[in-house]
Each structure stands twice: as C-alpha cells, then as structure tokens.
Amino acid sequence: MKAWHFHYTHKPLERAEIPEPTPGPGEVVLDIKAAGLCHSDVGVLDKEDWLAIIPNRPIVMGHEIAGVVSAVGEGVTEVAVGDRVGVCPTGASPTNPGYGRDGGFTEKHVCLPGDLVKMPDGLSYELAALGTDAGMTSYHAIMTIGGLQPGWKVGVIGFGGLGQVGARVGVVKGAEVHVAEVNRDLWDRVREIGVADVVADAAEWAGQGFDLIVDYAGFGETTTNAAKAVRRGGTVVLVGMGKLEFTLHTMDMILGEVRVLGSNGGTPQDIADVYELLASGEIEPTVTVVGFDDIPAYLDKLRAHEVTGRVVAHIAD
Q1: Residue (of 171, 165, 114) closest to 141 by Cα position
Q2: Contact 46, 65 (CB under 8 A)
Q3: H or E element in which residue 183 lies
C-alpha cells in the first residue's frame, strides 16, 4: 500500500510501498479515510530535537487519523468491522502514531481499541481527523486544563489551527472570549465566531483581569504578556511551541499568584466532546482538504505559513 516515509531531519518525505497490516490479538486495523497535517509534522522534518521520540525510522508520519474499522484481532469486543472512528494520538497504545508507530499518511492503520473514538452520524472523516489532534488539543487546553467556566473573561492567543477551535469552544461554553492575532487578514473570521474583541498583541491586555488565557502560539513573549493580563489567581495555559523558552517576571507571578500550566494533547473523552460540537455545527473550523499526493507540498505550505486553519488529506472514499 502507498505511504509517505520520514527518514531523517532536513530530508523530504519519500513515497514508499509498504505491506498491509493484519491485526494481532487485541488489535484493530482501520482503513484510513482522512489524515490531518500539522505544524508538529513540520517540526519533525526541520528540527533534530524531534528525533528523540522517533526511535525507529523510516516511519509513516501523520498523527491525525480517521477511518473505518476493517479488521479486528482476537479478543476485541469494543469495536466492530464497519465502525467509523477517529484515533486518539495519546490513547491506550504505548506508542504514538507518526512518532512511535506508523501513522496516517498511508492506507491502513493498526492500533488498540482504547485509542478509538466513535464518530457521530453526519460527521465527515476530514473533520473527524482534524478533531483527533487540533480539536482534542484545543479543547483539552481550554476546558480540561484551563477549567473554563461560563461568564469568564478568556483570552486566546493565536487564531491558527488550534486557536480557532479553542476560541469557538470558549464562545459556545459561555465565556467572554478575546483573541490576540497578529495576522489582521484573519480578523474578519475571528469576529464571525462570536468573540468580544480582537487585538494584534496580547501586550494590549496588560492589567485587564482575565480569568484564563490560553496561549496557542507560544512565542515566548506571548506567554510573558499573558501572565501580565490575568487577574490575581488567574491561569495561563501554554500549548504552542513557537519557541521553546520564555521568561516570567517574578513580581507578576508572586503578587498575582498566577498559575502557568502546560497542556499536552488530551484524551479520548476530549475528542468525543469535540466530535459532538463538530457534528452539531457549533464549531466550523477552517480546513483545506487535499489529496494524498499533495501531502509533501502542503507541509511546505504549512512551513511557509501559507495555510489558514488546518489541512487534511483525503486518503480514500
């Protein structure tokens, strides 16, 4: 079956033919219908640091996967052939798709039943794939880690693939949501989802008493500025990895008793919650659907910041 292989940093993906998998005891095989592209994939291609979590290469990249169960191994009762499912990339399997085991840039995928989240009727495979990471990560940060409550004043930094979902979740859950987004071309789209206000720089929020700010950009100064904008006892949740270091001012932290929390991935339940919002139409993320052969070119576009929202590859009908 066709696949895109990652060999090493600074090397392009290579088109390959690999054997079709069969499920072992307790395993499930999916026919992949859609697979999302992510800035993390660009990180793998560009930064040697990622090699530490990719011990076995070549590997099929792609950690946002949705498809149909096509085979189950001995002892599997949780799902059945024909079930429409998404794969939680931080689920029950001891390895993560696209990093520790072959991911979604191919035609079939092996995983454990505990990785799988059943798709609601009417949800497309493309949105289901997006929901497994962009949706899950965004929701987990603002709801599970951030603990958003109705009526809170909430800031979202960055309106990219994650921030657009997180901001809309906040609106749907009854918060007063403000967005900081440097790209003014996105401001009309920001306003369309029901936020209270949009600014170019979170530094403009200093002293405004936010209950919660989620930094989906993570460019160092964005997190620093967030800590200056929350109320006493407020929370900053860091998701983005635009830079791998940031500075916090001691006075802000101590006098304000500010909490700064990291958020990594999420759970199958986070995905299930996001799937309900996607299926109902309450969240309508901007998504570009491309073909299997287009995956390398669109990873280049992600690198060059030429894509708005998320990119999902259509693998099969």
Answers
A1: 165
A2: no
A3: none
Residue (of 70, 52, 78, 60) closest to 5 by Cα position: 60
The runs of H, that is alpha helices, within the chain are 39-46, 125-130, 136-139, 163-172, 187-192, 221-229, 250-256, 268-280, 295-303
- Return the SS3 of 165: helix
What is the Cα–Cα distance from 1 to 295, expressed in whole angstroms? 16
Cβ-based neighbour number of residue 96 at 10 Å: 18
Query: Helices 295-303 and 39-46 sit at what angle, rounded to 10 degrees?
Result: 90
Average pLDDT, consecutive stretches of 10 residues, N- to C-terminus, the chain (317 residues):
97 97 97 95 92 95 98 97 97 95 98 97 96 95 97 96 95 98 95 96 97 94 95 96 83 91 94 96 94 97 90 96
Ranges of each domain in the chain = 2-132+266-314, 147-262
Question: Which helix H or strand E contains 117, and what residues bound it?
Answer: strand 116-118
| CATH classification for the domain delimited by 147-262, as one of 3.40.190.10, 3.40.50.150, 3.40.50.1760, 3.40.50.720 | 3.40.50.720
**How far apart are alpha carbons 309 and 235 in whole angstroms?**
26
What distance in Å separates the CA atoms of residue 48 and residue 35, rounded to the nearest whole number? 24
CB 271 within 8 A of CB 148: no
What's this model's pTM, rounded to 2 decimal places? 0.91
Question: What is the bridge-based pairing of β-strands 210-215 and 230-238?
Answer: parallel
Dist CA 151 CA 182 (whole Å): 26
192 Cβ neighbours under 8 A, 6+ residues apart: none
What is the CATH number that goes with domain 2-132+266-314?
3.90.180.10
Rounded Cα distance between 201 and 193, Å, is: 19
